Amino acid sequence: MITFKHSGNFNHTEKFLKKASRAEYLKVIEQYCQQGVQALAEATPVDSGKTASSWNYNIERSKGGISIYWTNSNINKGVNIAIILQYGHGTRNGGYVQGRDYINPALRPIFDAMADGMWKEVTSL
């Protein structure tokens, strides 16, 4: 025979489930996404400023979790300028312009802060 003895209540569990079901954590994620946009804009090499001001983000929710995509809408002749600034590109006369890794260093502190912030959000329920 199996017996189960319980004392106390499930208030903390109920609070956690209610808060999670209202998706309040999305507000926290949105704040970090906006910080990412700002960090990318500040880190983007500036010529005209168009690429730096073209950053945005998308949040996609699925059964498996949440995906965050930072996007840049500055396209010239079918080429995303943010990508060629990051990875480099060939020139018309056969030369090559070296890329500059500005995206990863800009987002690294955002990822670290997001991991800490989301852990606090989940454990404070």
Mind explaining what this structure looks like?
- By secondary structure, this protein is an alpha+beta fold.
- It has one domain (24-123).
- 46% of the residues lie in helices and 21% in strands.
- It is built from 4 helices and 6 strands, in the order ααββββαββα.
- The strands form 3 sheets. A two-stranded antiparallel sheet has the order 1-2. The chain has a two-stranded antiparallel sheet with strand order 3-4. A two-stranded antiparallel sheet has the order 5-6.
- The chain is elongated and about 80 Å long.
- The two termini are 35 Å apart.
User: Please, how many helices?
Assistant: 4
Largest sheet: 2 strands, antiparallel
The mean pLDDT is: 88
Compute the gyration radius: what is it? 22 Å
Secondary-structure element order, N to C: HHEEEEHEEH
Approximate shape: elongated
**Largest sheet: spatial strand order:** 1-2
Low-confidence spans: none
Strand content: 15-25%
Structural class: alpha+beta
Distance between the termini: 35 Å
> Would you count the extended β strands for me?
6
Number of domains: 1
Determine the fraction of residues in helical runs and give it as a percent range: 40-55%
